[in-house]
Design a protein that fits this description.
Structural class: mainly alpha
Number of strands: 0
Strand content: under 5%
Number of helices: 16
Largest sheet: none
Distance between the termini: 18 Å
Helix content: 55-70%
Order of helices and strands: HHHHHHHHHHHHHHHH
Number of domains: 1
């Protein structure tokens, strides 16, 4: 259980993005600057400290009351609570389809869903994949695959590439985390991740061809041109699928570097910047958007190398508000969210679900701020409620 964690996952993707950015496959981006290298080293130092704290908290007898799992009767596995949430998800999705139509069959996927309700439905989908991937018994395998299959069908009908990708990563992480670290497991994980990345590139190309109403081959050419593929990369016959992946991973790091070089930090410790940092970077967007209207404040806009390549890691906006302090505070908030969730969960299954969720958050923080992503907080809340439900349902069962 301890060979993979949210902090290791974020360190891994930051190192991967930095390593890939050393290859100048695009004319738009150069190699990382010294300032970016120093910033990443400091972030990794904070993450390593958090990792040691996680290992200490997980193993220390002083906190054993938080981490001992109760005996679990198979009768309470996938009981009323997740089943109720599954029915609720289907009901909410059907209501949205009745009003907005099905995006796969011609509906507008960008405007699909009721405000707030759609976020809850999306979060429920993530939670259900977590629940039925982590908590698996021999007598519940069919129901687990059925629920997960329905969630994936919903993601396809909504044309939600991110929900599909998050769900697949959750299944992979849940599979890996339940097993001992072996060469076979590493091989399966490597093949699965490679397959997912290729699938992501292919789906991205198909999506682009549909948006622009062009052929798949023309979409590949468009990706190379829009991404500023270098003459060397094109002359070597580089694949558009690989270039899509390379660009998707390295452009956030390059945009972060671009912000470091161009943000004016003369007033970085202004009280207004602290307030905006807390609201826009650490609260769910569902809440921050409404708080912003009340207090008449607005989030800052990122500086981008190219407007159509608009991902810039979880740290660019934090740097824009408070400089290096903002980046380090945001990293600590990531650790804080995970530790609070992990400690509040008393059942082993809930702890593993929180672990898988925040490993996923760590992996995707290289692209965007997942802490302000509404589904992160709502899914966290569902896990905590689930844990409280099962604990109250099993009073009198002794701890082991």
């Amino acid at each position: 259980m301890f060979f993979i964690s949210p902090f290791k996952s974020l360190i891994a993707v930051l190192c991967l993005a930095w390593s890939l950015s050393q290859f100048e496959f695009s004319s738009l981006y150069g190699k990382p600057s010294l300032e970016l290298n120093v910033l990443l080293l400091l972030v990794i130092f904070v993450l390593i400290f958090s990792e040691f704290l996680y290992l200490y908290v997980s193993k220390c007898n002083r906190y054993i009351s938080y981490f001992r799992a109760n005996n679990v009767d198979d009768k309470i596995v996938h009981s009323k609570f997740p089943k109720f949430l599954f029915i609720t998800t289907l009901f909410l999705f059907c209501c949205e389809v009745a009003v907005y139509g099905v995006p796969l069959f011609g509906g507008d996927y960008k405007d699909f869903g009721f405000p707030v309700v759609h976020v809850i439905m999306y979060s429920l989908c993530l939670y259900l994949v977590l629940e039925y991937s982590v908590v698996v018994r021999k007598n519940t395998i069919f129901s687990s695959y059925l629920v997960i299959g329905v969630v994936f069908l919903i993601s396809i009908l909504m044309l939600s590439r991110h929900l599909l990708m998050y769900g697949l990563f959750i299944m992979l992480l849940a599979y890996v985390i339940r097993r001992k670290l072996t060469f076979k497991l590493c091989l399966i994980a490597a093949i699965s991740v490679s397959t997912l990345l290729i699938l992501f590139g292919v789906l991205g190309t198909y999506r682009m061809s549909g948006l622009l109403n062009i052929s798949y081959g023309e979409a590949e050419q468009y990706i190379l041109e829009a991404g500023g593929a270098s003459d060397h990369f094109i002359s070597e016959g580089g694949s558009a699928v690989f270039y899509w992946f390379w660009l998707y991973v390295t452009s956030p790091i390059s945009n972060l570097d671009f912000n470091i070089q161009h943000v004016n930090l003369n007033s970085e410790y202004d009280l207004n910047n602290f307030v905006r940092f807390f609201i826009f970077e650490n609260l769910p967007q569902t809440i921050s958007k409404r708080v912003a209207v009340v207090f008449d404040i607005a989030p800052r806009s990122n500086n981008l190398v190219a407007e159509h390549l608009n991902v810039s890691t979880a740290f660019s906006e934090s740097y824009g508000y408070l400089g290096l302090l903002g980046v380090l505070l945001h990293t600590l908030m990531f650790a804080f969210y995970f530790f609070i969730t992990f400690i509040l969960c008393k059942r082993r299954e809930s702890r593993v679900m929180s672990l898988v969720l925040y490993i996923l958050v760590g992996l995707f923080m290289v692209f965007d701020n997942m802490l302000s992503y509404p589904a992160t907080i709502f899914t966290t809340i569902f896990i905590i409620i689930r844990d409280g439900y099962f604990v109250s349902s099993t009073k009198g069962i002794k701890c082991i």
